[in-house]
UniProtKB/TrEMBL annotation:
<dbReference type="InterPro" id="IPR023631">
    <property type="entry name" value="Amidase_dom"/>
</dbReference>
<feature type="domain" description="Amidase">
    <location>
        <begin position="11"/>
        <end position="441"/>
    </location>
</feature>
<protein>
    <submittedName>
        <fullName>Amidase</fullName>
    </submittedName>
</protein>
<dbReference type="InterPro" id="IPR036928">
    <property type="entry name" value="AS_sf"/>
</dbReference>
<dbReference type="Pfam" id="PF01425">
    <property type="entry name" value="Amidase"/>
</dbReference>
Amino acid sequence: MSPGPRPALATVEELQARIDEVNPLIDAVCTPNPAALTEAARLDTERDDGRIRGPLHGMAVLVKDNIDTADLPTTAGSLVLADQPPPPHDAPLVRRLREAGCVILGKTNLSEWANFRGSASSSGWSGYGGLTRNPYALNRSAGGSSSGSGSAVAAGLADLAVGTETNGSIVCPAALNGVVGLKPTVGLVPQQGIVPISHSQDTAGPMTRTVSQAAALLTVLTGSSTDYLENCRGEDLSGVRIGVPRGPLWGYSRGLDRVTEEALELLSRCGATLVDHLSLPTPGSDEDQLNVLCHELKVDLAAYLATRKDGGPRTLADLIAFNQEHADVELRWFGQELFERAETTEGLDSPVYVAARLAALRAGRDGIDNLLAENQLDALAMPSYSPAWTIDLINGDHVLGSSSSHAALAGYPLISVPSGLVEGLPVGITFSGTGRSDATLIRLAHAFETARIKAHGPFPTPEFRQWV
């Protein structure tokens, strides 16, 4: 007879000890939950009484610090919110986690304001949480903006974490830290109670050790009757057609390209038909993308701040003024020119916004959907992100390339899965598809993960060393 589920209390005690030991090296968890042991004991009592809430009953989850928790601070990494009371209510997704029997272990650090304050930012830094580091290479980036969630899962501080993404903020730290990151279709997970950038692009999503864990967590986050875990069916991908768009998503990292070629070979062995040497159009103009984000930020952030019943800041102008008053900390490493640009925008009825939003939507959706339709494809596969770059607080990030922009503009799903190592640094492969193709992407990602482990063994654990 197999042993029953491990008691939640023992799990939380072990994870808290792990956080005490490892977190000082990586600063992934910015706010531990002092009530976690009490919550775990209560859930164990429920289990003993035969009341099991679901497959995640008693599981510990870390939540990114831009997602509202009524019992813990929600700061978006900024000192302006650090001294404010916690939000009056849990975000709907947090309420769903609790209802499913999850223990909120704590909050994870992020790139301040989800990496949309200044263009020379360093991923993983915030005035509140400090600098999150990559456990595979402490002098290299953990990616952003869900830096703490990715670093924490890689470091064994929890198997489950929740991140958020506007453009790459889940799949980037997932790839750099060697974990699974699933950005759902926008709207599948409720946006309420998340400190926003853009209502047209923002979504929360799972960051986990395995694809099956991501699927189980997505089922809870969506609050729907869909059981995404049913799509984790093994390796067989017979009858599945996967497109490989070479341009403009390859060629910026020789090591990453090599590992991705090996990943494609594994997919082929699983029975998938690969339609190679395709190309996606460039994902619209940078100016259109910035116009969309800046216009939506000003409006959406004011709406969010109005929900905080704490006498704190109410507008983007309030945040800009606070940063100027506390420039020695908040503006030490980079500025707030994106905030300042957003402050000059004139609302969502502005012709500039309407035109930019339409152009961005077409660039994302037409690019993906046309490629899928023309080649009768189920999904696309591509390199995720360049290997982790050296942390440079003075000059900011050095990102060579990525896979997230088309899906970001479209509001479509992505999943990044560890594919291998480049000189000891994790890299990933990304699966992309049309809107509401989350279940298909989970199936492909799980098949690939299963095949990769069979061929190469479990993904190596981090050693918390400097990389030279």
